[in-house]
Structures are given as C-alpha cells and as structure tokens.
Amino acid sequence: MLNNLFETRAISFQTIWGSGGDIELQNNSGTYVTQDNVWKLAAITGAVNLIASNISTLPMEAWVRRDGQKLLMRPKPDWVSRPDISFVDRTPFISQIITSLMLDGNAFIRVFRDADGLPINLTVFNPTEIEVKKNPLGRIVFTHTKTGETLGQDDVLHIVESLIQPGQVRGISRVSMLKDSLGLGMALEAYAQRWFGQGASGNYAITVPGALNQEQAKQMADSVDNRHGGWRKSSKTMVFHSGADIKDIGIDPEKSQSIEARRMFVEDVARIYSIPTHKLSLPGTNTYSSIEQTQIEFVTDTLRPYTALIENALSTLLQVYPNGQGAFLEFNMAALLRGDINSRATAASVAIQGGWLTINDVRQGEGLSKIDGGDVLRVPLANVPIDAADLTATDKRVLMAQRLIVVGFDPASVLSALDLPAMTHTGVPSVQLQGVAQIDPNDPQAVYEAK
Questions:
Q1: By residue range, what is the domain housing residue 96?
Q2: What confidence score (pLDDT) does residue 21 get?
Q3: Do 214 and 173 have their domain in common?
Q4: What is the pTM of this model?
Q5: Cα–Cα–Cα angle for 174, 175, 177, nearest 5°?
Q6: What share of the chain is helix, strand, coil (3-state, %, to 5)?
Q7: Distance (Å, rounded) from C-alpha 107 to C-alpha 160?
Q8: Domain check: are 241 and 283 in the same one?
Q9: 321 within some domain
C-alpha cells in the first residue's frame, strides 16, 4: 500500500505536449504551438482535411499474389471494410491515421484479436497519449499515459512518418519541429484579429497641452476606448476639447507587410506537406494549362507516401490468415488520376489496340456494364482477336512463298522451308505466265507445248 501511495509517474514530453503545456514550446514570435491549438490555423486545417479526405475516401481492397498473379483475397476479412466498429465505414478510421501522421509524425493503432489471434477490430490512439520505448530485449513497448496500460508490438501497429531521426523509434512531429514557422502564423492571425477588433484603425495616443494626473489620463483613455473601441464603434465621431489631439502610433498592416506574410505562411504550410499551393486556394497560383500534370504530381508526391505507409502496416494483419500468404492491402488511386474525356478515350483506344486491355476492362474503368464478346484481347495490326493473331504471320509467309515460286524455286521445297503445310496444285499455270481465258481446263499443259 505504501508503495502505491508514494508511487510517482515520470512526466514525459508527450504528456506535457498532449495536455497543452508550454514547456519548451514558446517560439520566437511569442506564441505557443501545440497539436490542439494548431487547428486554429486555417492553412493547417485545410492541409490536413485535403489529404485526409482524399485518401480516406479511396476504395481499398485486399489482394493476394499467387504465382505472379494478382487475385482478390476471398474471403475478405471484415475489418478491411470496417476497421473500427465504432464507425459505419473505414473513412473516419483512415482519416484519424492521416491526421496523426501529419501532426505528430506517428500513428498508433490498437489491434484487438479473437481467440485464434485474428484481428477483429482496430482503433486509433491519440498519439500524444502514447510513450514509445525499447525494453532490454529490444522489443518496442507502448505505454498509454492516461491509463498506464502497457502494450506490445503484437497489440499495436506503429506507423512512422517519413521524418525520423537515426536511432529513434518515434517519428518527428512536424508541428513540433516547425513551431517557429507555425507560431508566426498564429501571431499574424492574432494581430489581424486585434486590429479589426480594436476598430481596424490602429493604435492611438492622446496629447494635451497641460499636465494630467493619473486619474484624469485614465478617464480620457477610457472615454475614447469605450466609445470607439472595437470594429462596431469604429465609425463614431471623436470630439476633443481643451487643446487635446490624437495621433496614430500604430503600424499600418500594409506597411508591416502582414498581408504578404500571411500569404507566405500558407506557402510555408504547402511546403511542409508537399502540397501544390493552388490546392490550398492560394490566389494566383492555379493554372489550367497543366492541371492534369499537377494532379499527377499531387497524387504521387503528396498522397502516395501516406497511402504506402498505411498499406504496408495494415498488410501485415493479413499475413496471419490461413489464406493470407502473399496478401496485401491496396488503395485504388485510379480515380484521382482520371483525365478529361478526350484523354481517357485516347488512352483506352491505345490500350485496346495494344492488346493489354479488353473492351470490358475499359468499360468497367468508366463505370459501365460489360458487353458480350468484350473480354477478348485484340492485337494491334489488324485489331483481330488474339486467338487469330497467327493469321497475320501466316499471310506474310504465304506472300514470301509466292515470290519464291514465281522466280523458279521448287514449290515443295519452299513450303517446307517456310513451315507451311503441303498443298496440292491445280496444275493451272500462274496468271503471270498465261491469261486464264487462254487455258484449256481439260488440258492445261497445252499452253506449254510448242506451236
């Protein structure tokens, strides 16, 4: 009992961070940045929502590779469609993972298993409530700071963002690492709010010819503040007497370049998360001349790193199933890469004529139903079914045989050399030697007899 009474728990950085503490969090702009208050920045909220909404709504399927063939995993585990039974689908679950990775650099997924050790439910922890350490055996141990529960690697999936220091097991939080840049954004927001809240006209000093005592100065200042303070009172008329004068001692937002600084902050957020600036609705940065290429770069450079991390982590849960050898999860990102109708039609035509997609493959990609005969691959030259592709090669060999026989080669030898089947000749001479109308079908050799 005495041990429990005097037991103390170590205070970690994650504990202070999650509780909103300000130890070592104050930045040069005089603001405090935590994962809780960073949501006040519209650029951060927009960036997280952009990436999380794009990835969480993508179709996700379980596959298995057998003898080089990619096949659907059937039966498919229920958790693939609904990882967390608290939600109706996987969208909020994936969104929580993305949010954790973007703000903390880590995502911790609690895995609940049945009696056979198969996953049945997954939940995402708040990353600020998890401590990560290595035990003496080199195994990773996860401790929930609020409950004190200790979990092992079999119970928790730890997804680490790409930023991680050598020798560490916990990823780096971009919010923590770039707190000075994000703190500047908070300072700019606060400055703009105060400027508008105090009348959107600046900071003033009142001067009078004579001397005022403290009480008189306070009464005059309170009189101005009460009547003109705040943007709702900014249009009221000021009246001074006894030679009093008012001067603006504030800094104009335009002169202080606060507008340009706020724009630069949005660009900084775009750089932090590798997001094209026009995706964050920054004016003057979007162009329709290369919108398709920009979308491809957004998918490959911004979204793909996150989807790969989630795919790799969740795929390990498929390996424990009896039919899970070679199984993996995959997001279908084709919908994000769809071009305009002309580009898709051109690509479909090339794929069909190239013989690597069927008509029904293309129709399914466009959300259309299959048609009869649409599952046959076709070859490019004559666009015939691939089963009849040898007809083209045979036609070329026959043409070559014809040329050889015309110049005097033995027909039987030519057929054998070109791997053509032996055929019986009618005996009728080639029209190149004699017109058909002059040949007696009952005596075709007569045309060769001397006259």
A1: 12-198+253-338
A2: 44
A3: no
A4: 0.67
A5: 60
A6: 45, 15, 45
A7: 7
A8: no
A9: yes
